[in-house]
Specification:
36% of the residues lie in helices and 21% in strands. It is built from 12 helices and 14 strands. A 7-stranded mixed β-sheet has the order 3-2-4-5-7-6-12, with helices on both faces. It has a 5-stranded mixed β-sheet with strand order 9-11-10-13-14, sandwiched between helices. A two-stranded antiparallel sheet has the order 1-8. Strand 6, helix 7 and strand 7 form a beta-alpha-beta unit. Helix 1 packs parallel to helix 7, helix 8 crosses helix 12 and helix 9 crosses helix 10. It is globular and about 60 Å long. The termini are far apart. The mean pLDDT is 97.
C-alpha cells in the first residue's frame, strides 16, 4: 500500500530501506546500526537485508565515522551516518565544520560531498546527560551545511529521501521523543521542497513558528487557545538552514504577531535569527514584538527536572497571551 499509518521511527526505517534499494551507492553507517538496528531501532533489519557492506557497524569514534563518510562521498558514495545521541556529535564537530562543510566551496564546486548525518535530538525521554540536547543552532551557523528536522512521519520519510539525494551535506535532526507518534505516510506522493516551511494550522490572530519536537506542542497550544476564542496559526519550519522566510513573512503579515518556539536555549538560539529577520521584513505589520519560548541558558538538567526545563503548553500559551496583550 502506498499510504500507511506509521510511527515516525518506522517512517525513517522505510525511507532508509527505499534509499538502499534505489541507489547502490547509499551506505548506512554508525555505532550499533547493524546487528542491533540502532538504539531506537531506526535501522532495524537493514543489515540483514542489505549486508554488512551496505549497513556498517562502526567503532565508537564519531570523528572517524564522519571522516570515513567524507572519504566515501569523495569516491561517489552517499553515506548516511547515524550519531547515536545528540550529545555524542561533538567529537565529530571538527570534521563536520572544517572539512564536510567546506569541501564544495574549497574546490570551487568541483567536489560534492553528499553526506547525511542523522542526529536524534531533544529531550522528553528521561535520559541522562548528553542524551537530550538541541545543538541545531551550532550547525545552522556553519555555511555549507543544510540543517533540517521533520515533525511528522510523512516528513520524516520524504525529507530523509531528499536529504540523501542532495549533493550537499545535510544535518538531519530527528525529534527522538516523537519517534513513536503515528501519522499517515504516502510513499508514492510527490513531496514538497525540502526547505519549504509548512502551515500546519491556519489562523488569523497570531503565528506560532516551531520545528521538530515543538510542532506538536504548538498545535496543542493552538487548540487550547481556540477554546478561548483566539485564532492561532502554526508554521512548521522544517528547515533551519536555509529558512523559508517567505512563508513566515506571509503568515506574519496576516496575523501581525509572532512567537518562536524551540527546545534549545533561547539565548543565541535559532529563534533569535528568526525574530531579527522577521522584524526587519515585517516591521510595519507587527503589532507586538516577536517573542521567543525555549529552554533555559543552562546545561540540560537531570531527568526528574526536564519537564521544568522543556517549554511546554503553559509557557507557549503564556507567550501567546503576552503577545496578544500588546
Amino acid at each position: 500500500m502506498a499510504v500507511q499509518k506509521l510511527p515516525l521511527a518506522k517512517a525513517l526505517n522505510e525511507s532508509l530501506r527505499t534509499a538502499l534499494e534505489t541507489d547502490p551507492k547509499v551506505v548506512v553507517m554508525g555505532l550499533d546500526v547493524g546487528k542491533l538496528g540502532g538504539v531506537f531501532r531506526i535501522t532495524d533489519g537493514l543489515q540483514k537485508d542489505f549486508g554488512e557492506d551496505r549497513v556498517v557497524d562502526t567503532p565508537l569514534a564519531e570523528s572517524g565515522i564522519v571522516g570515513t563518510a567524507i572519504g566515501l562521498a569523495l569516491r561517489g558514495y552517499r553515506p548516511v551516518v547515524e550519531i547515536q545521541f545528540d550529545g555524542f556529535v561533538f567529537p565529530a564537530y571538527d570534521q563536520i565544520v572544517t572539512q564536510l562543510a567546506k569541501m564544495r566551496a574549497r574546490s570551487l564546486g568541483a567536489v560534492k560531498v553528499p553526506v547525511v548525518i542523522r542526529i536524534p535530538y531533544g529531550g522528553g525521554i528521561g535520559a541522562v546527560e548528553h542524551h537530550s540536547e538541541s545543538p541545531e543552532s551550532l550547525f545552522a551557523h556553519v555555511a555549507g551545511l543544510k540543517v533540517v528536522t521533520p515533525a511528522t512521519p510523512s516528513d520524516a520519510y520524504w525529507m530523509l529521501q531528499q536529504a540523501i539525494q542532495s549533493d550537499d551535506p545535510v544535518i538531519f535532526f530527528e525529534p527522538k521523543r516523537r519517534y513513536w507518534d503515528k501519522g499517515e505516510v504516502d510513499t508514492e506522493a510527490i513531496p514538497g521542497e525540502l526547505h519549504k516551511a509548512r502551515v500546519a494550522r491556519e489562523g488569523t490572530d497570531l503565528t506560532l513558528v516551531a520545528y521538530g519536537p515543538m510542532v506538536k506542542t504548538c498545535l496543542e497550544a493552538a487548540s487550547a487557545a481556540a477554546e478561548e476564542g483566539k485564532s492561532v496559526e502554526v508554521v512548521d519550519l522544517r528547515s533551519i538552514s536555509p529558512i523559508d522566510f517567505d512563508t513566515l513573512q506571509a503568515s506574519v503579515e496576516k496575523t501581525r504577531r509572532l512567537v518562536v518556539v524551540h527546545e534549545a536555549p533561547v539565548f543565541f538560539g535559532s529563534g533569535a535569527e528568526i525574530a531579527a529577520r522577521v522584524t526587519e521584513r515585517c516591521f510595519y505589520h507587527l503589532e507586538a514584538p516577536v517573542l521567543r519560548v525555549g529552554g533555559y541558558h543552562a546545561p540540560y538538567p537531570p531527568a526528574r527536572l526536564e519537564e521544568e526545563y522543556l517549554p511546554g503548553l503553559d509557557r507557549v500559551l503564556d507567550a501567546v497571551d503576552r503577545s496578544l496583550a500588546y
